[in-house]
TrEMBL record:
The keyword Lipid metabolism does not apply. It is an enzyme of class 3 (hydrolase). This is Ligase-associated DNA damage response exonuclease. Its EC number is 3.1.-.-. The keyword Ligase applies. InterPro entries: MBL, RibonucZ/Hydroxyglut_hydro, Xnuc_lig_assoc. Keywords: Exonuclease, Hydrolase, Ligase, Nuclease. SUPFAM superfamilies: Metallo-hydrolase/oxidoreductase. It comes from Teichococcus wenyumeiae. Gene3D superfamilies: 3.40.50.10890, Ribonuclease Z/Hydroxyacylglutathione hydrolase-like (3.60.15.10). GO terms for molecular function: exonuclease activity; ligase activity; RNA endonuclease activity.
């Protein structure tokens, strides 16, 4: 394995994993835009990931040739055996297991260990080299159960029935997870969506993930009026600063992210109700996962590399920082500005 300007390259197999620009052959771990780039000649991924790429990028840019590979199935490319196993990050997310000449490398992509009703749970795979993310690789990041954060949200809804609750969340993965966790907590009322969230929810439902009744955010009946007091609205994180949000009844602003563990981040963004809900592994889960896979060597990428490598040294594990270019340090994916007309 080599780190090239376009990303992590498997030399004997002649393919890239999550490359940052178009390449001749790519294996894609999941559909977030900082991993699933356009314009590859050939793309291998889970059926769900390929569907997400097609929905987001269009038929012409989501890989000229697409090869679906289901969890647990394997193919060989130039003698390298490729297997995809669940990563627990979002729908279709996969760890890429590579086997060649008796050695095994696992490229985990983004992953989490918390339960998530919208995607298959992470499966640890013993290996010689484990490539791990480090988004939340500091001891301060210890994520509470998502269901506990949903109870906090519902308590706030009950406390302020005259106000809408505007929850910022990424359109792929976080949005659907929040909906499912709310349903599991007993919330069966309609959940209202910004227009930017709707298409990915529809895709999840096509893959059998039931989300209950979802509605678009209505326009007020007259100028100056507001809508949806007492209701929950899910929107991209930037929507709260967009004129679109003015239609909501005195919204309580919330944001669902692992970064909400840091109070200064919540305060800087003007978040009234920070919800610590992450689709990435926290500090204890990173260390537990590395112990489970038993790799004597761990490569660390896109995140707090130094802190994790230092912790691994104390456990007798060799750590290496890959310093891959182009990764978003924010949780999930790069986000485009939200236009007001998206909600129509």
């Amino acid at each position: 394995m080599r780190v090239l300007p376009k990303g992590l390259y498997c030399e004997p197999g002649d393919f890239f994993i999550d490359p940052q620009a178009g390449v001749h052959r790519a294996v894609i771990s999941h559909g977030h835009s900082d991993h699933a780039r356009p314009d590859h000649d050939a793309v291998l991924g889970t059926p769900e990931t390929l569907a997400i790429m097609t929905a987001r990028l269009g038929e012409g840019r989501a890989g000229r040739v697409q090869q679906p590979l289901r969890y647990g199935e394997s193919i060989e490319q130039n003698g390298v055996r490729i297997t995809l196993v669940p990563a627990g990050h979002v729908l279709g997310s996969a760890q890429v297991v590579l086997e060649w000449r008796g050695s095994r490398i696992v490229v985990s992509g983004d992953y989490k260990r918390q339960a998530d009703p919208t995607c298959a749970p992470f499966e640890p795979v013993p290996c010689d080299v484990f490539v791990t993310e480090a988004t939340f690789a500091l001891p301060v990041f210890q994520h509470p159960p998502a269901r506990a954060e949903m109870r906090r949200l519902l308590e706030s809804v009950a406390l302020f029935p005259e106000r809408a609750h505007l929850v910022g969340c990424y359109a792929l993965g976080k949005c659907q997870r929040l909906i499912s966790e709310l349903r599991a907590a007993g919330y069966q009322k309609p959940i209202y969506l910004h227009g930017a969230q709707a298409s990915m929810c529809a895709l999840y439902e096509r893959f059998g993930i039931a989300l209950g009744e979802l509605q678009p955010v209505p326009r007020p009946a007259k100028r100056g009026a507001t809508v949806l007091p007492g209701e929950i609205v899910l929107a991209p994180p930037s929507a709260e600063s967009n004129p679109w949000s003015r239609r909501l009844a005195e919204p309580v602003t919330a944001l669902a992210s692992g970064w909400m563990r840091v109070r200064q981040r919540a305060k800087a963004r003007g978040v009234e109700l920070p919800l610590v809900v992450s689709d990435h592994a926290d500090w204890p889960d990173l260390l537990e996962t590395i112990a489970e896979v038993g790799a004597p060597e761990v490569w660390v990428t896109h995140g707090r590399e130094d802190a994790l490598i230092h912790a691994l040294e104390g456990r007798g594990i060799r750590g290496r920082a890959l310093h891959l270019l182009g990764r978003e340090e924010d949780e999930g994916e790069a986000e485009a500005p939200v236009a007001e007309e998206e909600s129509a």
